Amino acid sequence: MDSAYNGEYKALLNELIQGMECAKQLRVHLNSAASSETQYFFLQRILSSYEKALLILKWRLVGQSHPVAPPLPGAPEPSISLDRSLDINNNGFKEQQDYNVSKKRKAMPTWTEQVRVGAENGLEGPTEDGYSWRKYGQKDILGAKYPRSYYRCTFRLMHNCWATKQVQRSDDDPTVFDITYKGAHTCTLAPTTSVPPLRSPEKQELKQIHHQNENFQAMQSNQMLMNLRASLRVNTDGLDTKETAFPFSFPPTFSGLTDENQHFQSSQVDDNAVALGTYSPSFVSPTTPESNYFSASQQHTNAFKGVHISSANTSSTNSPIVGLDLDYSLHPATLDPNFPFDTLEFLT
DNA sequence: TAAATTTGACCTGC
DNA sequence: GCAGGTCAAATTTA
C-alpha cells in the first residue's frame, strides 16, 4: 500500500466516520424535537460526507489520486465533474468514456457544496475550508438575485496551484451559499492561518448574520443549562462496553457560554450509574443546546471517554430524560472497564 | 506600502 | 451574439 493510497484510505475513512457521527447526531435531534434548521444542518453534513467519500472512490477507480492529493502539481486535470445533479448516474459514477483528459478550463474536476450560514458553522462555513483564497472577479448572473464571486488560490504563482472556487448566494434562501470548487489544490504547505483574513462581501455578510445569531443562541444555552441542571438523570447502561477504536472527536469549541460554578451532585445519578462524582458543566453548546458534551475521566489510567449526553423533554413528565451515549474513547487500550470514572464534566 | 478587493474590459465556449 | 469566466488596472485596506 503506497503513501498516496494510505492518504486516500484515511480520507475516505474520515469522511465515513464523519457521516456516521452526523447520522448519530441527527438521530438524537430527531428524537429531541430539535429545530428543523439543526436537523437540516446534520443532513447536509451527512450528504457532504457521502459526496466526498464517493469523490475519493471515484478517483481511485479511474486510477487517479483524488483532488485532495493531485498527481502532479500544476498538471491538467482529468475531465471529471461531480456536480451531483448532472453527472452522476444511478450508480453514483459516471461512465468511463467520459474521463477524457482535456486541457480545457471547464474540464477541471468540479464539485459543489451547499453551505448554510448558521450557528453550527458560522464563519467557518463558506470561507473557511482550510485553504487561502483570493477574489479575482465578480459577475452578475442572468436570473440570479445575487452576484457570483470568483476566487483562486492565493498561492497560484508561488505553488502553481490552480484551484478555484465560485461562491453564489442562493436566491431562495440568503443564508445558503452554493460553493463550486474547480481544480485540485497543490499548496498543502500553505495553511490558511498564515494569510490575513479575506475582506470579501460574503465574509462581511457572514459576520453580520453570525453576530445576529449569537444573542439568541446565548439565551437558548442559558435556558438549556438551567433545565439540565434542574433535572439531570444519567443512564449509563453499557458505559464500559460501547467502545470504538476511532479517534476521539468532539465538536468545535465555542467561546460562548461558560459556567464553571455550577455543579451537579452524584446523588442525581441513577442507581445503575457508575460513581461519577460531581458534574462540572463548563460548556454547553450554544448552537445545539439539545445536545451537550461531557467527558468522563479515569484519573488513575489518565484516560477518558467521550460521553454524549442528550436531553429530551417529554410531555408526560416535567423532568427531561437524559440519555447517555458513549461515542468514542481516546485511549481505549488504557481504559479500565472495572474502574469507575472519577469525574463527568462538560467539555471546554 | 504591500496585499487584497473591485470593476470594467476582454476572452472563451455554446 | 450572449453569458459566464478571467484579467489587470484602479482602488481600498491594514
CATH topology of the largest domain: N-terminal domain of TfIIb
| Poorly predicted runs | 62-104, 119-127, 189-348
The rounded distance between the terminal residues' Cα atoms is: 39 Å
Question: How confident overall, as mean pLDDT?
Answer: 51
What are the secondary-structure elements, in order, as H or E?
A: HHEEEHEEHEEEEE
- Order of strands, main sheet, comes to 1-5-4-3-2
- The assigned structural class equals alpha+beta
CATH architecture of the largest domain: Single Sheet
The main sheet comes to:
5 strands, antiparallel
In the residues, how many domains can be counted? 3
Number of helices: 4
Beta strand count: 10
Considering the protein shown, what is the CATH homologous superfamily of the largest domain? WRKY domain
Query: Which percent bin holds the helix content?
Result: 25-40%
Strand content: 15-25%
Protein name: SPWR1
Subcellular location: Nucleus
Keywords: DNA-binding, Nucleus, Transcription, Transcription regulation
Main location: nucleus
